């Protein structure tokens, strides 16, 4: 039995399919009633719903993996439609290339951190000072002047 117009999914309402059956609707798993209306309208405007449907029919849905692939394909169509809608001058390829550049930049940062971590560690917070007996002492740099003055006073006596 066909559903009422208000109960049909956004795809069936947009496409004017009056014979929308709840259990046999092609678009219902991807664009449920009352949800993702803007996404479907963007996708339909950019790619046309018939093209998307024909593309999705090429992916077999008799297994769980096939159903997941169809959902990922729909998400991909929606993402690409959103990118085209936001900025038609720079298509999704530009976004992809900028993402690749960002990944390369982050990878070089990670490599720099790893190389820094593997270098021998030199304690920059220690100061080498000669004490009153003539031997050298490592002093934390927080108190170098105080300890140096104490050592100097003892050396004078």
Automatic annotation (TrEMBL):
One Pfam family this sequence matches:
LOB
Organism of origin is Tripterygium wilfordii (Thunder God vine)
Q: Which family does it belong to?
A: Belongs to the LOB domain-containing protein family.
LOB domain residues are 7-117
The record, for PROSITE patterns, names: LOB
| Protein name (database record) | LOB domain-containing protein
Do you know which InterPro entries this protein is assigned to?
LOB (IPR004883)
Q: What is the lineage of its organism?
A: Eukaryota, Viridiplantae, Streptophyta, Embryophyta, Tracheophyta
């Amino acid at each position: 039995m066909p559903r009422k117009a208000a109960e049909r999914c956004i795809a069936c309402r947009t496409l004017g399919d009056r014979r929308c059956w709840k259990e046999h609707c092609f678009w219902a798993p991807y664009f449920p009633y009352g949800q993702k209306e803007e996404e479907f309208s963007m996708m339909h405007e950019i790619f046309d719903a018939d093209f998307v449907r024909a593309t999705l029919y090429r992916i077999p849905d008799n297994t769980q993996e096939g159903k997941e692939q169809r959902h990922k394909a729909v998400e991909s169509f929606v993402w690409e439609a959103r990118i085209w809608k936001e900025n038609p001058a720079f298509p999704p390829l530009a976004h992809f290339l900028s993402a690749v550049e960002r990944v390369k930049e982050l990878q070089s940062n990670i490599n720099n951190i790893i190389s820094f971590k593997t270098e021998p560690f030199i304690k920059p917070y220690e100061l080498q000072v000669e004490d009153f007996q003539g031997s050298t002492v490592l002093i934390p740099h927080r108190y170098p002047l105080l300890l140096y003055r104490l050592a100097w006073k003892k050396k004078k006596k």
